[in-house]
């Protein structure tokens, strides 16, 4: 990859920057760890290459970690090297971690000891943004500099979201943006985050969230709710609309893609009825609805 024929003194800095950008992809850590090891060895021994590396901190501080499984040692090794290098600089490099494990675990309750990757633990004090899109326990993490937390694990009977209040209590972090797919106790989050976004993927939960907003039980921290809900019957959908209409406080509530799989006569004209219902209450969120059975889309 890097040979003695490539002398930094004879190559313009912008070219070296392009080389470094190519060798350390910021969107997905798919580069062989052996190549990264060679690159970082050169960086440690050559001040010119080190200067170039320090000019591109986003490449090794904003990590998009996509593990196929826990045995994906090639990727894990590359991640470890990026974390070690970012920690070796004189400046404090805060980390943005986007973590996804392809081998999705459907039965979360069988994996109560399935913790976040151990290689993150030594660097947890530097993490400012963490996105977890796999069922991982958060009980081992302490994140004092965390400002943005996203935990999205839809489709699980028991969500790791339950660990969020304890995590925020341990970390004493000042969260400015929190995104969750469900939560057992909404009020437990309100004192920790100034902006809470909920991604709802289940119709009944969507109606529950709206009623809680209408009652004021969610406080003022909840600013945005996004729905990507598959409604399996018309009753659930209409229940959600009625709950939404009862809201009196302005909250951005976007119903992204709602699907009704069982349509009856009440749903034939629901598109007009829904908009009219919300318009009467002065609420007009964007509604995009697709019906898989029926004549209205």
UniProtKB/TrEMBL annotation:
It comes from the Eukaryota. Residues 11-66 form the F-box domain. InterPro entries: F-box-like_dom_sf, F-box_dom. This is F-box domain-containing protein.
């Amino acid at each position: 990859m890097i040979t003695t024929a490539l002398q930094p003194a004879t190559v313009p800095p912008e070219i070296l920057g392009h080389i470094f950008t190519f060798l350390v992809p910021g969107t997905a850590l798919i580069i062989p760890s052996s190549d990264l090891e060679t690159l970082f060895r050169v960086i440690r021994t050559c001040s010119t290459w080190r200067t170039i590396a320090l000019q591109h901190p986003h490449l090794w501080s904003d990590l998009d970690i996509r593990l196929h499984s826990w045995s994906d040692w090639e990727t894990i090794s590359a991640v470890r090297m990026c974390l070690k290098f970012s920690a070796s600089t004189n400046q404090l490099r805060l980390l943005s971690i986007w973590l996804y494990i392809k081998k999705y675990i459907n039965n979360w309750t069988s994996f109560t000891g399935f913790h976040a990757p151990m290689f993150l633990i030594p660097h947890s004090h530097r993490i400012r943004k963490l996105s977890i899109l796999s069922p991982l326990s958060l009980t081992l993490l302490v994140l004092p500099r965390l400002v943005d937390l996203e935990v999205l694990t839809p489709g699980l009977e028991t969500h790791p979201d339950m660990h969020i209040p304890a995590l925020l209590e341990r970390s004493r972090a000042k969260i400015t943006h929190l995104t969750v797919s469900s939560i057992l106790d909404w009020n437990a989050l309100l004192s920790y985050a100034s902006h809470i976004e909920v991604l709802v993927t289940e119709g009944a939960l969507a109606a529950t969230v709206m009623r809680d907003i209408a009652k004021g039980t969610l406080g003022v921290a909840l600013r945005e709710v996004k729905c990507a809900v598959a409604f399996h019957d018309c009753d659930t959908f209409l229940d959600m609309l009625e709950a939404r209409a009862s809201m009196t406080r302005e909250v951005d509530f976007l119903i992204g893609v709602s699907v009704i799989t069982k349509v009856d006569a009440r749903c034939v004209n629901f598109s007009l009825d829904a908009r009219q219902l919300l318009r009467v209450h002065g609420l007009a969120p964007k509604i995009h609805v697709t019906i898989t059975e029926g004549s209205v889309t």
